[in-house]
Write a structure and sequence with these properties.
With about 220 residues, the chain is mainly α. About 75% of the residues lie in helices and about 0% in strands. α10 packs antiparallel against α12.
Length: about 220
């Protein structure tokens, strides 16, 4: 119960802070807006912006491992703060700071989502989609692409999952097992479900055959 109450208070504080930041952005007070985020990071996560943005995503995740478990809801909270910071840097026209924060936020969101985060707490799927809409023009880090693939499949976005699979191939990754398993799962789904996921059954069948050719060719090159 205590843990649940703490998370509720954290979200309430975040909601109030985000509203305040929105007002400050509208008033062009970007420095003050960044201070608001920094204060919340310190209060709820014992972090500050400088430290958070200097750490790798792996290091951030480790900070939230306690007793063999992972505080996934705090992790998605940190991702939300990074996303909010990125929004401030959009106002400052600083593309580097925007994209670096959004890339990190995306990885943390996906990791939290795939490890049991409460998906209604901050509407994580909606936030992931907002971040993806901004960063889709950029090449994702390979480690993030590995998280994006199962996320897209679990969300029923099968066409985009297939695209993610091939991006991993373009990264030079050996994803033969992942690809084989993906197509084996897809081929068993109801055709209507596949169609809603923008990957009709006929395209799954064609994709599976093409995937076999891609893997066969990769083995020839590696021989």
């Amino acid at each position: 119960m205590f843990r649940s109450d703490y998370i509720v208070r954290m979200i309430e504080d975040m909601t109030q802070m985000i509203a305040k930041v929105l007002t400050l952005k509208q008033e062009r007070k970007t420095t003050e807006a960044l201070w608001e985020i920094d204060e919340l990071l310190n209060r709820h996560f014992r972090l500050n912006s400088r430290l958070l943005n200097s750490l790798s995503v792996e290091d951030i995740i480790e900070l939230f491992r306690i007793g063999g478990g992972l505080e996934v809801d705090k992790l998605q909270g940190v991702a939300r703060m990074l996303q909010e910071e990125a929004g401030i840097y959009i106002e400052k026209n600083d593309d580097y700071e925007v994209i670096s924060r959004l890339m990190k936020a995306l990885h943390l969101y996906l990791y939290a989502y795939l490890h049991g985060a409460d998906r209604k707490l901050i509407h994580i799927t909606q936030e992931i989609d907002k971040v993806l809409a901004v960063v889709e023009a950029y090449r994702l880090p390979t480690k993030t692409e590995y998280l994006l693939l199962p996320y897209l499949e679990s969300a029923g976005r099968y066409g985009k999952a297939e695209d993610s699979l091939y991006r991993l191939v373009d990264h030079g990754e050996d994803v033969a097992k992942e690809g084989n398993a993906l197509y084996q799962r897809l081929i068993t789904l109801d055709p209507d479900v596949l169609a809603r996921g923008n990957l009709p059954l006929v395209e799954v069948e064609q994709g599976q055959e093409e995937w076999r050719r891609v893997i066969a060719k990769a083995k020839e090159w590696g021989a």
